[in-house]
Specification:
The chain is mainly alpha-helical and 114 residues long. The chain has one domain: Cytochrome C3 (Alpha-Beta Complex), CATH 3.90.10. A two-stranded antiparallel sheet has the order 1-2. A hairpin with a 7-residue loop joins β1 and β2. It binds heme C (3 copies). The site of one heme C (HEC) has 20 residues, from β2, α2, α3 and α5.
């Protein structure tokens, strides 16, 4: 009986802590308009991707968790244009599509809006 009570208390503490830690991380905006050059900007449902992908570094290993991060890296010549688009966005969407799973857009105008 005492062990079970202890178990419940420990679980409650762990749960409480993870809620506090999750709140401390800056999740960024729910929806982001990514700079897309002359083709037009790209509306991006950030939170929806976070909920599904979990690991922030799937995307953020290439650019930091900052507003307009991709645009800034391109301006300094550190990141090639279309690299994120091709190696992250389209690559993953095509893989999911091939696997017959729900996937994001794969054609220019479904991503870029003018
Ligand atoms: C599917 C790709 C992807 C994943 C996964 C992802 N992000 Fe992002 N995140 C982006 C993009 C794209 C931007 C916008 C960069 C830009 O505007 O140049 C961004 C921007 C941000 C920003 C900058 C503030 C803002 O809202 O503009 C923060 C903070 C951030 N992300 C936090 C996170 C955290 C924390 C996680 C994991 C829980 C995460 N992101 C997961 C793609 C992703
Ligand atoms: C899944 C969404 C998506 C699709 C589909 C897509 N793009 Fe993009 N595109 C982006 C994102 C996000 C960026 C900004 C990041 C980057 O440059 O990698 C971008 C960047 C670009 C850029 C560079 C803009 C600049 O000045 O830095 C061009 C040009 C471009 N896209 C053209 C196209 C064309 C042409 C197609 C169709 C063959 C296409 N895109 C399909 C999301 C998409
Ligand atoms: C690791 C995989 C992965 C990466 C990387 C990724 N996506 Fe997606 N995306 C998905 C999946 C899966 C869905 C379908 C989600 C659903 O239906 O719930 C999706 C859906 C979308 C949608 C449609 C949302 C809707 O509900 O209509 C857009 C727009 C989109 N992604 C844009 C992007 C852009 C722009 C990038 C690059 C910055 C990107 N995605 C990177 C997996 C990914």
């Amino acid at each position: 009986m005492r062990h079970r009570l202890l178990g419940i208390i420990v679980t409650a503490i762990v749960l409480g802590l993870s809620v506090v830690m999750a709140a401390a991380v800056n999740q960024g905006q729910e929806n982001i308009g990514i700079f897309g050059g002359k083709s037009g900007n790209v509306p991006f449902p950030h939170r929806q991707h976070q909920d599904r992908i979990k690991d922030c570094n799937v995307c953020h290993s290439v650019f930091p968790q900052e507003t307009e991060a991709i645009k800034k890296l391109k301006e300094t010549g550190t990141l090639k244009a279309k690299k994120v688009m091709n190696l992250q966005c389209i690559k993953c969407h095509k893989q999911e599509k091939k696997a017959g799973k729900p996937h994001g857009p794969v054609t220019c105008k479904t991503c870029h809006v003018k």
